[in-house]
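Below is a filled-in request sheet from our internal design queue. Each sheet records the structural input a requester submitted and the sequence that came back. We keep these sheets so that new team members can see what a complete request looks like end to end.

REQUESTER: design group, bay 2
PRIORITY: normal
MODE: inverse folding
CHAIN LENGTH: 310
BACKBONE (tokenized):
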């Protein structure tokens, strides 16, 4: 049996040490739109910030929990190694100059699976890359980057593992096809999915286990169209032996979570209802939006949370 409802990536959620620095990096430097300013539903005195295209379309959204002064994570196996964004062909010289001028760390050219890419690091040492790709998604262009260069959304993520056999079996079960292997990296592609449809598995036997902290990916979310499809996916995963959470309402999508054999936390999230469910499209990300269970904390949270702008 193969799960057919999963379309590719929905969002990637990481951790940071400063909300202000994180916001500036993604909006001012990378030119993404902040599509939601809310809080961690489980730890409401910490922001949950979302960045993406105009509407926060599935497959474009990078999200962050900025824990003030959080220690940096330690790289290793059992984690996402690099999150990769798609940019138009011929645009990497623009990005190389832009990131170099901003003194971004870790700038390095690479050629992976025949793709031209530029590796770089986020403010907390987060692993990122830009890859030139034919991508038909409309970019957000009000963030200071023109359409000829602007980020389209995710291209892929890579995962570092002691052994990739079990994870490869899981991805195949989730509808991905095993592609080429180059060195210690094997590519998996969700054919016919959304344009954020590539997962690379990097095998590092003997490497230390990662320790999460600022700059670490907390979880990777995969997209399904609606709640009915999500329930089908959940049932299939449970029947296969995975311990999957009940469906959780995250206001902008419904979510289920499970831990993978390699240690990475996976989420399956619905494409509905979207980020405009509690504020108009034109105003996305402008106000602090709280889930109903935390609305009574608004006055205290607004005094406590780090100002993002200014």
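RETURNED SEQUENCE:
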């Amino acid at each position: 049996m193969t799960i057919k409802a999963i379309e590719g990536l929905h969002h990637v959620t990481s951790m940071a040490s400063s909300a202000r620095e994180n916001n500036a990096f993604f909006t001012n430097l990378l030119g993404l739109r902040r599509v939601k300013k809310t809080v961690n539903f489980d730890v409401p005195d910490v922001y949950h910030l979302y960045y993406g295209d105009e509407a926060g379309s599935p497959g474009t959204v990078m999200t962050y929990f900025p824990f003030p002064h959080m220690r940096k994570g330690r790289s290793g196996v059992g984690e996402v190694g690099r999150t990769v964004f798609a940019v138009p062909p011929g645009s990497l010289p623009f990005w190389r100059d832009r990131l170099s001028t901003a003194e971004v760390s870790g700038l390095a050219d690479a050629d992976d699976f025949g793709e031209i890419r530029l590796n770089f690091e986020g403010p907390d040492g987060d692993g990122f890359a830009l890859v030139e790709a034919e991508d038909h998604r409309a970019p957000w262009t009000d963030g200071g980057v023109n359409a000829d260069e602007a980020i389209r959304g995710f291209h892929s993520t890579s995962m570092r593992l002691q052994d990739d056999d079990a994870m490869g079996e899981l991805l195949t079960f989730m509808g991905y096809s095993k592609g080429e292997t180059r060195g210690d990296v094997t590519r998996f592609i969700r054919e016919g999915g959304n344009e954020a449809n590539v997962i690379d598995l990097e095998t590092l036997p003997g490497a230390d286990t990662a320790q999460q902290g600022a700059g670490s990916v907390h979880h990777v979310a995969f997209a399904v169209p609606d709640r009915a499809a999500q329930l089908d996916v959940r049932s299939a995963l449970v029947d296969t032996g995975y311990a999957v959470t009940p469906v959780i309402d995250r206001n902008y999508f419904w979510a289920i979570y499970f831990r993978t054999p390699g240690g990475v936390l996976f989420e399956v999230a619905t494409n509905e209802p979207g980020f405009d469910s509690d504020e108009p499209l034109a105003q996305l990300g402008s106000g602090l939006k709280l889930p109903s269970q935390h609305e009574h904390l608004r006055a205290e949270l607004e005094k406590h949370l780090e100002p993002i702008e200014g």
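SHEET NOTES:
- The chain has one domain: 9-304.
- The chain has a mean pLDDT of 96.
FILED BY: M.R.
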